[in-house]
């Protein structure tokens, strides 16, 4: 799997990436800001309830920083937003596992409790899905901009012989392998 920046920038999937990054960023900014408003102790390992989750000052700071990064990715958009969503989503899933490993211990620097772990897994999978949507798949359709960028030899309109190609079903493009064999 290649996640290169030379892939198409201007396509309709960029809107999905932007909305995913913006939604995740705004949620994290709200959570972190509520933690700062409660004046939480920075390294308190027991934490206090904020919006149904346990939090401390460090978790509030991390939430605000990651939220700002996601909002910035939403503003920039394109492949950067997609890649940022995938990275942040993966880190959220990893933080869920890390939080699960340190529950009820002195090493719990982010004051995680079980609802935090579940939130980290859910938020991570959501953001990860927004980042991967339409970009990472074994069966991308041939009109997908990422498929065309990875298969330029099949995506060029000159390679298609119009008289030899049957009309595809509505919304689908012809199979390039079938088009090439029909032209021979």
From TrEMBL:
UniProt KW Membrane keyword: yes
Pfam families linked: DUF4383
Transmembrane intervals: 16-37, 58-78, 84-103, 115-134
Keywords noted in UniProt: Membrane, Transmembrane, Transmembrane helix
Protein's name according to its UniProt entry: DUF4383 domain-containing protein
Originating species: Streptomyces alkaliterrae
